[in-house]
Amino acid sequence: MLAVHFGAGNIGRGFVGALLSHSGYEVCFVDIQASLVEAIRERRAFTIHLLGDEGKRIDVNNVTALNSGTEPERVIETIAGADVVTTAVGPTVLKSVAPLLADGLRRRLEKGGGPLNVIACENMLGGSSLLKRLVTGEMTEEECREVDSLIGFPDAAVDRIVPEQRETDLLAVEVEPFYEWVVDLRGVKGNLPSIQGVTYVEGLAPYIERKLFTVNTGHAVCAYLGHHLGYGTVQEAIADPSVSETLRGVWEETGELLVRKHGFDPRDHRKYVGEIRHRFQNPHLTDPVTRVGRSPIRKLGREERLLGPALQLMDRGIQPDHLAVGIAAALRFENPADPEAVELQRILQGEGVAGALDTIAGLSPEHPLVRRVWERYQKLGQGV
Ligand SMILES: NC(=O)c1ccc[n+]([C@@H]2O[C@H](COP(=O)([O-])OP(=O)(O)OC[C@H]3O[C@@H](n4cnc5c(N)ncnc54)[C@H](O)[C@@H]3O)[C@@H](O)[C@H]2O)c1
Ligand SMILES: O=P(O)(O)OC[C@@H](O)[C@@H](O)[C@H](O)[C@H](O)CO
């Protein structure tokens, strides 16, 4: 069995690629970083370190790699013969991957290949569906019809904290022990891909929203408030009582939404939240707030982890006071090394809080959430 995985980065090597390899696939990573591709191709294996009390090491074998920038033809041929395709490149990078993926799928269809599933493992709602739209946007109507009947793009939710790497070995990757990979079986074509550790569900919405609005909302709040208070890591931030208290309030708010919207049992949800707090506090993890807060413009999107739950709560008559603090802290995120953080501050300087929320999330300046966020933004500026 052959798997093609776009993105040999943290989650690519430390989670998706590892699970595929352990399920018996030969994994062909596709990346644009020449040093990474060369190292994988040369060594054909790497090691995962589990950041837990036991400090376990896991070998990942039977891997190879291709450079999509310099070897597009080989990538196309490999996709044409693959049994599954996955991505973990980042939501904004999917559009760069789509043309090559479209060429690979076209080649497969020309050769009369069978059904194939393409699973985007990105932190976003509807990642595979977006990838399908981008791929079919490159195709003729006839090709689109063939893709519709043979190529599945099941949406997925992936959860494993893979922090910035401290390893000196380019390929070794440190990960938390926990993982969860949920795939919507309604989007699958042909047989369900056999991947150990994947849970297939009928309808992904409850799972992806629970993950994004708990793990990633909580993470973002710790990162942005922590950064504002001068902390370098999520672990330092969450140890501050004021951050911890805001996080508790934020999780109460998103929990209220998730329980009402998807019918989760409140006790089960409290347990889920407790486990996530425990994961964030993992003493073996050192996860910089700059990684967790990266790309603030993406994270301030209308359906994303902060505004998404806040707006849905307001639609239900609930005031998201703690989420408003998280949004305000996100607007204060400054990091010269992060192009989106630089752009965010440029927008804020020119347009102010209301203008920025309009430009970034299409939120009307009259929306009541804008006033709340503005007040919180001012208070944070005064150190309150
Ligand atoms: N790190 C985590 O804890 C975690 C957990 C769950 C989900 N995710 C999601 O996984 C995705 C990847 O995150 P990450 O932390 O692994 O990031 P990363 O930066 O470590 O990895 C991304 C990889 O994609 C490669 N890449 C960039 N452009 C490419 C292109 N055009 N073609 C092929 N490869 C390309 C990069 O070179 C890099 O190796 C994101 O959507 C993220 O939200 C991350
Ligand atoms: O990857 P992002 O930038 O969407 O979000 C940063 C972190 O919250 C994220 O990578 C988590 O570590 C991950 O989603 C845990 O499963």
TrEMBL record:
<dbReference type="InterPro" id="IPR013131">
    <property type="entry name" value="Mannitol_DH_N"/>
</dbReference>
<feature type="domain" description="Mannitol dehydrogenase N-terminal">
    <location>
        <begin position="2"/>
        <end position="196"/>
    </location>
</feature>
<comment type="similarity">
    <text>Belongs to the mannitol dehydrogenase family.</text>
</comment>
<dbReference type="InterPro" id="IPR023028">
    <property type="entry name" value="Mannitol_1_phos_5_DH"/>
</dbReference>
<dbReference type="InterPro" id="IPR036291">
    <property type="entry name" value="NAD(P)-bd_dom_sf"/>
</dbReference>
<dbReference type="InterPro" id="IPR008927">
    <property type="entry name" value="6-PGluconate_DH-like_C_sf"/>
</dbReference>
<dbReference type="Pfam" id="PF01232">
    <property type="entry name" value="Mannitol_dh"/>
</dbReference>
<dbReference type="InterPro" id="IPR000669">
    <property type="entry name" value="Mannitol_DH"/>
</dbReference>
<dbReference type="GO" id="GO:0005829">
    <property type="term" value="C:cytosol"/>
</dbReference>
<keyword id="KW-0520">NAD</keyword>
<feature type="domain" description="Mannitol dehydrogenase C-terminal">
    <location>
        <begin position="204"/>
        <end position="379"/>
    </location>
</feature>
<dbReference type="InterPro" id="IPR013118">
    <property type="entry name" value="Mannitol_DH_C"/>
</dbReference>
<dbReference type="Pfam" id="PF08125">
    <property type="entry name" value="Mannitol_dh_C"/>
</dbReference>
<protein>
    <recommendedName>
        <fullName>Mannitol-1-phosphate 5-dehydrogenase</fullName>
        <ecNumber>1.1.1.17</ecNumber>
    </recommendedName>
</protein>
<feature type="binding site">
    <location>
        <begin position="3"/>
        <end position="14"/>
    </location>
    <ligand>
        <name>NAD(+)</name>
    </ligand>
</feature>
<keyword id="KW-0560">Oxidoreductase</keyword>
<dbReference type="GO" id="GO:0008926">
    <property type="term" value="F:mannitol-1-phosphate 5-dehydrogenase activity"/>
</dbReference>
<dbReference type="InterPro" id="IPR023027">
    <property type="entry name" value="Mannitol_DH_CS"/>
</dbReference>
<dbReference type="GO" id="GO:0019592">
    <property type="term" value="P:mannitol catabolic process"/>
</dbReference>
<dbReference type="InterPro" id="IPR013328">
    <property type="entry name" value="6PGD_dom2"/>
</dbReference>
